[in-house]
Write a structure and sequence with these properties.
- The protein is 32% helix and 23% strand.
- The chain is an alpha/beta fold and 331 residues long.
- Strand 6, helix 7 and strand 7 form a beta-alpha-beta unit.
Length: 331
């Protein structure tokens, strides 16, 4: 269901400290900087969050400017279909799209899942991410989180075999997912795939740079490969066939819940398995993503677990089981 809403736009910057230093192959951070969109229509306020990502040429300033450029259109009244025709996929459209869904939900008194024609969401098991570090530190972190069913390991450089072996020692029973964040070559994949299979790794995300992944085309992939940076919206799918086995859907890439749901359907129809992932953000960003995560093969919505602070009404986690959001938060 899509309904035109006339709304006043407000955008704020929010900063959430992380639990320690979070490191991937591209760098480290100690905080998550997000943009929060509020859309007000009468007594109702809909909210949405996005995380600008430098990998895609986004900054807080550039994304905020994109959002603010929609102020007059929102006052005139738009819906998600019109929004998609006016904005490209990315963080800015995500925050507005999710805020529109929330506003429609609050003004109608109907949950977003029902408005979208979905079944009522159930809790799902999320992966928990271990930051890139020395083998010794990663083994200690894995041991600390060994009760979690799924661990996701950030890799992408010299010493990855030692890191993998150390994590497996620390968490002997957890399913492992590896995320190289474009940090490998095709040769690295060929070398590491047998090692990862021996260690019980289920999946590797984006081993090669998205713009240099032709080497995956037709290549034997004993370990399934997931497209992350190479997959944004439905238009990406044609370029992924023959290279990848799984696609990672993130709302900050698709440009919101609307396209994320459509991408999930199209990806499954095209024969891909699906992961639903996230940037490092708060519970407000995870709430709509949880609707997309229903019934998919892999879920990686651990953003709030990596933060030292969260929204006033956070999502509830039981170890790695993430529950649907309270409607006080979103939807």
């Amino acid at each position: 269901m899509s309904e035109r809403m006339k709304a006043e736009l407000r955008v704020t910057r929010d900063v959430f400290a992380t639990k320690g230093v979070f490191t991937i192959s591209r760098g480290s951070r100690t905080e998550a900087c997000v943009l929060t969109v509020s859309l007000t229509s009468g007594e109702f306020v809909g909210v949405g969050e996005c995380v600008p990502y430098a990998r895609y040429g986004e900054t807080l300033d550039s994304v905020e400017a994109q959002i603010l450029s929609m102020r007059e259109s929102l006052r005139d009244g738009i819906d998600q279909v019109i929004l998609k025709s006016m904005m490209p996929p990315g963080a800015a459209r995500n925050a507005i799209d999710c805020a529109l869904w929330d506003l429609q939900s609050k003004s109608s008194g109907t949950p977003v899942w029902s408005l979208a024609g979905l079944n009522e969401p159930a809790p799902v098991i999320t992966a928990y991410t271990l930051s890139l570090d020395s083998p010794e530190r990663m083994q200690a972190a894995a041991s600390d989180h060994s009760a979690r069913p799924v661990l996701k390991i950030k890799l992408g450089g010299e010493g990855d075999v030692e890191r993998l072996q150390a994590v497996r020692r620390g968490a002997p029973d957890s399913m492992l997912i590896v995320d190289a964040n474009e940090g490998w070559s095709a040769k690295d994949y060929d070398t590491l795939a047998p090692v990862m299979l021996d260690l019980g790794v289920a999946l590797v995300e984006q081993p090669l740079p998205a713009g240099d992944d032709q080497a995956l085309l037709g290549r034997e992939r004993p370990l399934p490969v997931c497209a992350d940076e190479a997959c944004h919206d439905r238009e990406s799918l044609d370029q992924l066939s023959g290279k990848y086995d799984v696609v990672n859907i993130k709302l900050d890439k698709t440009g919101g819940l609307t396209e994320a749901l459509a991408l999930r359907e199209a990806a499954i129809k095209a024969g891909f398995d699906v992961m639903v992932g996230c940037m490092v953000g708060s519970s407000l960003a995870m709430a709509p993503a949880l609707l997309v995560a229903q019934g998919v093969t892999y879920v990686d919505l651990d953003g709030p677990l990596l933060l030292a602070e969260d929204r006033v009404t956070p999502m509830r986690f039981e170890v790695s089981l993430i529950h649907p959001a309270s409607r006080k938060l979103w939807g």
